[in-house]
Design brief:
Layout: H1 5-13, H2 22-29, E1 33-37, E2 42-44, E3 52-56, E4 61-66, E5 72-78, E6 83-84, E7 98-101, E8 105-111, H3 112-121, H4 123-149, H5 152-162, E9 174-177, H6 182-189, H7 193-202, E10 208-211, E11 214-217, H8 220-227
Helix pairs in contact: 3-4, 5-7, 5-8
Amino acid sequence: MPLSAQEIERIHELPLFSGLSPDGLRDLLSVAAVRVHGKRKTLFLQGDPATHFFVVLSGWVKLYRLRPDGAEVVVEIFGAGESFAEGAMHMPEGYPVSGEMVEEGRLLEVPTAAFGERVRQNPDLAISMLASMAVRLKSFVNRIEKAETQTAAQRVADFMLKFSRQDRPDDKGVVVRLPYDKQLIANRLGMKPETLSRALSALRKQGVHVDGARAEIRDLPALKRFTAPG
């Protein structure tokens, strides 16, 4: 299934590709492939050669590691419009985590070898890649800080805000689609399922109503203020 005009636009908005000209983006997309993967499909395992990186077009992907006792630790969850695993192309030891589909979805899969060739030929792409790494590092640092300073309700709200998109700037409300498996969200946020349930209940006072995988945020600016420090 080919990419839609909206999907191409969202891909171009990603820090990794935002510095490319339209022709440069088309050239890169010409070597990529769009594939549909089923629920729980393993994309790669920790230590596998990093042959591709990915952009989520639909569905959810989790990156995880296994502890020595076999317990799964969710490192990150990615939804539509996000890229992942691009940093692994520079790691000789391969992917540092394992990747799995949380539900059926479509991914844009970019070969790292072809991407590397274009980085060497295109300084703008190299700069965009550095910008993407900087954004990812900043996000990681913010995540560590918020884990220490935010309440459980604020952390859950922050997670929802990550996937919120306003179609109209003058519209305060927005509907966010979440992974249906709340255990997955709890694992990602480092909290117990019962803590997540209490946090979701507390967010009702902030105008957030969750029904299955659907979260309705009635006042997006107010929720952003709720998650702000201080």
